[in-house]
């Protein structure tokens, strides 16, 4: 990796093959500070005539347009979202603001994905994918706090792999896209291994709760005379909504989930 980026030169994004003119280069000191150029090994920012945030791929390689590199640098490993939900603006007029906000958030979060969707009840919004519940809550909070949006989020769901009777398979993250029952041969869903630590007095109740959530028992470990750990393999769909709250309620606040 070598060379430099100067104001006025043309650069090319190797992932999209888009060409832009550099309007400004700078460093963070800690506030943005303009400099003449950025050389190899320096950390800074580049301002270009990019009209849409969707044109930028996180981890892309920037090369000179006149003397391009033959191969790009290794990009980020793609991360597949595990939890999905719909996000809709309370005020339908804020749809474009929501679209612009999530496109900007996408620039700093490669694991966050979204696509437009519509609901007869909620109107126009976006189907968003996250790494987990915490990731979903952070994105929702940032959209409200940083962009002043008032949002409605649908109940989170997971992605299912559906095998149809005609031999075709597909990944479904939205209940509205689920095939008809007579067309389904079988379905696969994501499982997770959960470790639950709590006082031993609640062992019986905890085992019943996990089995009610379709959990498959793995093992039990007594960490000390008063504390026990149980391990279950459970469907992700069963624990993304109220499972943690039920553990806290069942153990008077002493239980923990990993």
From TrEMBL:
Signal peptide: none annotated. GO terms for biological process: positive regulation of translation. Residues 1-63 form the Translation elongation factor EFTu-like domain. GO terms for molecular function: GTP binding; hydrolase activity; ribosome binding. SUPFAM superfamilies: EF-G C-terminal domain-like (SSF54980), Translation proteins (SSF50447). Keywords: GTP-binding, Hydrolase, Nucleotide-binding. InterPro entries: EF-4, EFG_III/V, EFG_V-like, EFTu-like_2, LepA_IV, Transl_B-barrel_sf. Residues 188-257 form the Elongation factor EFG domain. Belongs to the TRAFAC class translation factor GTPase superfamily. Classic translation factor GTPase family. LepA subfamily. This is Uncharacterized protein. It comes from marine sediment metagenome.
